[in-house]
Design goal:
Elements: E1 2-11, H1 15-26, E2 31-35, H2 41-45, H3 48-65, H4 80-90, H5 97-105, E3 109-112, E4 114-119, E5 122-126, E6 132-143, E7 147-149, H6 165-170, E8 177-181, H7 185-196, E9 200-205, H8 215-227, E10 231-234, E11 238-244, E12 247-252, E13 257-260, E14 262-265, E15 269-271, E16 303-305, H9 316-335, E17 358-360, E18 365-370, H10 373-378, E19 383-389, H11 394-399, E20 406-412, E21 417-425, H12 432-440, H13 445-448, H14 461-469
Parallel strand pairs: 1-2, 1-6, 2-3, 6-16, 8-9, 8-14, 9-10
Antiparallel strand pairs: 4-5, 5-6, 7-15, 11-12, 12-13, 17-18, 18-21, 19-20, 20-21
Helix pairs in contact: 1-9, 3-4, 3-7
Organism: Microbacterium schleiferi
EC number: 1.-.-.-
Protein name: NAD(P)/FAD-dependent oxidoreductase
Amino acid sequence: MSAREYDLVVIGAGPVGENVADRAVQGGLRVVIVESELVGGECSYWACMPSKALLRSGAVLRAARAVDGAKQAVTGEVDVAATLARRTGMTHDWNDSSQVEWLESAGIDLVRGHARIAGRKRVEVTRPGGEVVDLIATHAVAVCTGSAALLPNTPGLREIEPWTSREATSARSAPASLAIIGGGVVGCEMAAAYASFGTAVTLIARSGLLGGMEPFAGEMVGEALTAQGARVLTGVDVVSASRDASGRTLTLSDGTSVTAEEVLVATGRTPRTADLGLESVDLTPGSWLDVDDTMLVRDTDWLYAVGDVNHRALLTHQGKYQARAAGDVIAARARGAHVDTSRWGAHVATADHDHVPQVTFTDPEVASIGLTAERAEAAGINIRVLDYDLSWVAGAATASDDYRGRARAVIDREREVLVGATFVGPDVAELLHSATIAIVGEVPLSRLWHAVPSYPTVSEVWLRWLEAYGRP
């Protein structure tokens, strides 16, 4: 066994691990990153980037058909082969050479193989050829292994070999029919993508669509999916699965069944910590890792867990936000420098608490930040809810002849600040960062009166919210 010594060992070379490593190197540390698959991780090859590529063609086509003068020029449907080729180009055909070049340029060493923690500040890596490399961390180890699709223990489900999000985003062709289990972000996005390909999609969502968001978000997405040709089944669960020559069959709790060429399971995520050696440091294999706001695993002084694996916010942008804080604090602690752990300090990821922006790239898009009305009331906040039909602003009328959208602001009456915002409509993702700034910055409504939205844009909804609330 060969041994190497570094200040920091990062396990997992996805966007989160890359950012931890990069910030630590900028802070003067010697860093190695370990990856068992592709450098760039889930987001680059099986999640964010390929999924949005699959969705974009259909969304653009529908947008063109919603504008007179453009719709007359549309003579066909989505070119599935071209869409899949564009997706494959975006993933570099699942080749990570460009990402490896970036690591080299950033001064980060790479070891390929399966990493296991072998004790305090020690990581053993089994390389593809069987060689074991012993990595010693003089200061810290950061676990950035992310999460994997969760398969429920439904009888027969594993035996039918269902798709997870990985197979759905990397498919080389579109199936004739697809049954999707789960009404969350992945389920809704893949339903939209494959419906645009002409696939007969059935979405099975026991508790409805986009749970945890404002109720109207799931309702509007469900209506749109139905209009796009998908079948949406709510209030039923899958009780068993089987497979024969006719396809894969799901038996539902109401006694009916759904048969499809492929089945996609999108029912949640599980941490990739089962074979990480956590037992060697008295932690539970397969568990989420509990951290403080500097991403330090509680009851340790050397082990960090960043991104999905700590279960704070399973989103790439939030993981990268955590990573920037973690890389900086690891470097600062290694140097014995001042560590700023105040609420909005440089070395904490405070915005994981009720300040998480998220976009669901269905058509219409759903963009949200902060608290829903229900969660705000449960937290004891005296709120006022402001709802507005986005089709009433001038920017919507110029963007589409059939614009349909809705926006909700959740206002803390006592502090007179925004604590939650949800937008549903075409291209509303671009509205979200203004709401994020308002919430994170706790900008008073009285100040927002002086943030004038451009005309004619959909951003004019901000003025309409303020008018509804009333001048100070």
